[in-house]
Amino acid sequence: MNKALAALIHQQVKVYRGDATYLLQILRHIQFFCSHIPEQAIQLLSFELKISIPKIRALIEFYHFLHYQPRGDYDIYISDSIIDHMSGKNEITSYLCEKLKVKLNQPRADGRVTVANTSCTGMSDQGPAVLVNGLALTRLSRKKVGQMVAKIEGKIAVEAWPKSWFNVADNIQSKGVLLNSEIKPGEAIKKALAADPHDSLTEIDKSGLRGCGGAGFKTAEKWKSCLLSDDNRRYVVCNADEGEPGTFKDRVLLNSYAEQLIEGMTLCAYIIGAQKGIIYLRYEYQHLHKKLQETLQTRRAANLLGTHILNTELSFDIEIFMGAGSYVCGEESALLESLEGRRAIPRIRPPYPVTHGYLGKPTVINNVETFCYAALIIEKGADNFAQQGLAGFSGCKILSISGDVEKAGIYEIPLGMPVKNVLNLCGAQSVQAVQVGGPSGALIIPAEFSRVISFDSLNTGGSFMVFNHSRDILENALNFTHFFMQESCGFCTPCRVGTKLICDLADKVATGQGARLDLDSIKQLNHVMNEMSHCGLGQRAAHPLLETLEKFPEYFVKRMTDVEYQPSFDVEKSIQRAIDIVTIESN
Hints:
This protein is an alpha/beta fold.
């Protein structure tokens, strides 16, 4: 065995104390070290961690950024979101592959470089964007591609490339109560420690704070449920896996407001009685890892993290867990599976994480934005937060706005703000449609622009994509449909088979070969998947197509060769048989 590889594995196993739940973290290190996971590494890990080889292979085959075959010294992923397409992604991709003399998704013959597509990298405000060995490059142009290619052909290590190339702007366009705040590290914790934990929980409840990741569950109620659990070993987990296309607000908060995030997690720990916290950071935010680690260390040095925080009985520390590429990890139970070193298959609920979470223990899981607001509420007071809302709504929401706007970026708005006001803020002109909440969200047309952003009316985890009249809305739906197929975890038959069938039917329509029966088949598949899929991905996979069909039928009619055409018996039989298979296997 390669001595360097063996030494790396021994070192990693030692760092993680031989704990098999850290298998994914070890595999990530091996991937970066070798540009793939060698067979020798699998054999040694199986021996060192007492894990079967099939279980190790299951992880490698599940996560997008782990590979059996070498990717080369330069592993390049191009963001394939619809917003990147609008920014010229396809033309830039073709130019990059041409200059590197490489085919998309295939390692080059000399083994030096691989160029591949990946789902949204959280850079929709500054695309086209790529990841090179896990580091982000934004606003890619032909000139920058030429410079990249010169470095690659010159065998210059990525670490030696100009640092300015890897700058990722925050693009904060509109600040509200959180983004304008100047919270001093430790102030919220000091205030909480001066009172009973229940007083802080009451303040969170009074503020009306709800989970900002999309579900909108009442934060105080979640924390209270965890506090009341019988098991005293509790955990705080931050979901920083914002994989919804068009969302990038957490990226900005992690970059510039990490103190508030960590403060909020520490407050949660004080309230529920936890001693350990975990930040689950998505692979695409590898560029933020070092800075976050430095922030954690700074807080430890200031006695704001670790044992006996501020010389009290509160002891709490945080570690960072890196993802390896899986959209479903955004679902909290799937995230827990990933944290425990398994494939990210969503769990059957109940029980819920507040009673049976990480390692089977009571766990609070909130996203970055929620923890940041929690720290603000304790520091500034519940009323200060609640009064920010409009029309009877409490608090604020941070939107990631991209697409056909003058000023793409981050906007903190009061809850209750109408969509039309948001569009005015970002300078959107001649708007044809808005996708609120990403592919799994809602497609809004001008007649609906009076609807308000709120948890009860028009909910969103943060994604807000704007499309003017120059855009073919069906292209958006096609992009979203392929996204769902690629991101299906494959656990259940309705989703695994259904997403592929829907993609095939959608592509048939897109290429001018579709007919009315194909649309009916998509509706049938949607019914089966909605009723029988294991999780929300399968339940929403057909939604972008069907909502586009409902609101923009003209885009489908343009693509149809003959809307009255009836396909042959063989085609109809084939589609119906596939639907029957999905139904039978689900039952």
